[in-house]
Amino acid sequence: MSISTTSRKAGPYIGTNAVAAFPFAFKVFAPSDVLVVRTTVATGVETTLALGTDYTVALNANQDVSPGGTVTLSGALQSTHTLTIGSRVADVQPAVFTNQGRFYPTVLNDALDRLTIIVQQLREQVGRAVKTGFSSTVSPDQLLQNIYGSVDAAAGSASAAAASQASAAAQASAAGASASLAAGYADSVNPASFVKRDGTQPPTAPLTVPNGTAAGHAVNKGQLDEAVAAALPAGIFIRAAWVTPPAGFRVLRANGQAVSLATYSGLQSIYCGDSRNADAQWGYRCTDSANPSTTRSTTGGYIVLPKTHGRYARDLGDGTGIADGMDLYTYYADELRAHNHPYQWFPGDGNGEYDNDWQAGHSQQTGWTGLTGGAETRPYTYFSTVWVTY
Predict the structure, then answer these.
(1) First to last CA, the chain
(2) What is the tens place of the pLDDT at every residue in 159-207?
(3) What is the pLDDT of residues 87-120, one digit of tens each?
(4) Left (φ > 0), alpha (ψ -120 to 50) or beta: where does 199 sit?
(5) Is residue 57 a contact partner of residue 73, using CB atoms and an 8 Å limit?
(6) Rounded CA gap, 245 and 236, in Å?
(7) What counts of helices (H) and strands (E) characterise the chain?
(8) β-bridge mates for residue 255, sequence order
(9) Under a CB-based contact definition with an 8 Å cutoff, are residues 251 and 308 in contact?
(10) Phi, psi (5° rounding) for residue 157?
(11) Range list of β-strands (E), the chain
């Protein structure tokens, strides 16, 4: 039989202190294929329960016609917990077919169903994973590491500040903050917009979350965007189809402008260094943003961004024999590799006839073709804008 449903999950069921049996409606082959997870509401901690010890499984007799069954806990599910049921069919192929041997079609159907179930299990797991954009060069692990690093740094600062206060004052402040946060939620969120745990109350208005102000507080989308943008180090070049960057991205147009290091301190990372400040074409410091090239100074308060307009980006040669001698902080004009295009002819003998020089004794002459082509040499090209993170 075919598998007509794509869901491999039932629940989460809310504990009521009275119910111990919970249904599921997806096909499995044995009770051991059923995954049961109990979650503590207060902490979010998940516990995978053990078959035979914490629960039993009663499968429907015909898994093709009526897939699923019932999970029965050893005791009623408490109101402090939720229960979620899934599948964990092993990713193996146990069916064996022999040449000229006979087999039942149900064996082949079950083998195909098993493969479909494994794909659905993988899709469910991937759907809960951290993912980046299709064209992103940042891996999910790198993104999480950057976010966790920012969160740890913020938590460390908050912890140090809290430790410097007296115990009584800290308790009073925490109580006041909790009251303020509760009042903020009450004032800014329409109660009708809340969704119940069982999903029976759909949202009727946008959920508004105030800015988080202390460890453990919820954060809104604006704060999360800011944290993600701040996780990108300064000095990264981003090529994108942006005329205006999306809100929350900390980027500047790479247009040769001089910007304040007091405002964009992270851009100190692109400084060319004191020894190059006098001759670098970008990445140097200056004292006047309106006249950067004539006010160069190693202690200047401004730094000049690269001007990428219409230019190709290339990596340095690093001794490979390709582009060796090129410099990081220099622009290079367009240029063709040295070559020529000669052509030859022999003058006539004065009677309108052109003879070979070995016959007429005439000297060989050399000339050059005229110019052809456009204003530049380029491959097939598309254009985008270039930005620098700060």
Answers:
(1) 58
(2) 777 676 656 666 666 666 666 555 554 444 444 444 454 555 555 555 5
(3) 998 888 787 777 877 777 777 777 788 888 888 8
(4) left
(5) no
(6) 15
(7) 5, 15
(8) 307
(9) no
(10) -65, -45
(11) 9-14, 21-24, 34-40, 46-48, 55-59, 69-73, 81-87, 237-240, 251-253, 258-260, 285-286, 302-304, 342-345, 365-368, 385-389
Q: How far apart are CA 252 and CA 282, in angstroms?
A: 15
The one-letter amino acid at 40:
T
Residue-wise DSSP of 243-269: SSPPTT--EEE-BS-EEETTT-GGGGG
* Lookup: tokens for 290: 């309106």
| Kind and range of the H or E run holding 358 | helix 357-360
Query: If we measure between CA atoms, which residue out of 222, 189, 192, 234 comes closest to residue 208?
Result: 189
Q: Is 354 left (phi over 0), alpha (psi -120 to 50) or beta?
A: beta
Q: How do residues 118-147 score in pLDDT, each as one tens digit?
A: 888 888 888 787 777 878 888 888 888 888
Q: What CA–CA distances, in Å, run from 266 to 232, 251, 260, 262, 379?
A: 11, 11, 11, 9, 35
Cα(220)–Cα(237) distance, rounded to whole angstroms?
Answer: 28
Helix (H) or strand (E) holding 359: helix 357-360
Q: Who contacts 237 (Cβ-Cβ below 8 Å, separation ≥6)? A: 254, 308, 313, 386, 387, 388
By three-state DSSP, how is residue 193 classified?
helix
Q: What type of residue sits at position 379?
A: P
Fill in the DSSP letter of residue 276. Answer: G
Residue (of 174, 170, 168) closest to 216 by Cα position:
174
Q: Which residues pair with 223 in a beta bridge?
A: none
Exposure of 386 by Cβ count < 10 A (0-12 exposed, 13-18 middle, 19+ buried)? Answer: buried
**What is d(CA 49, CA 73) in angstroms, rounded to the nearest whole number?**
9
How many Å apart are CA 89 and CA 92, to the nearest integer? Answer: 8
Q: Could you give the CA distance from residue 103 to residue 146 in angstroms, rounded to a whole number?
A: 55
Q: Describe the strand order of the beta sheet including 258-260 as a list of residue ranges.
A: 258-260, 302-304, 285-286
Helical residues (DSSP H) of 84-205, grouped into ranges = 105-127, 140-163, 167-188
Per DSSP, 129 falls in state S
Token pair for 89: 């069919």
Nearest to 251 by CA among 272, 231, 224, 229: 229
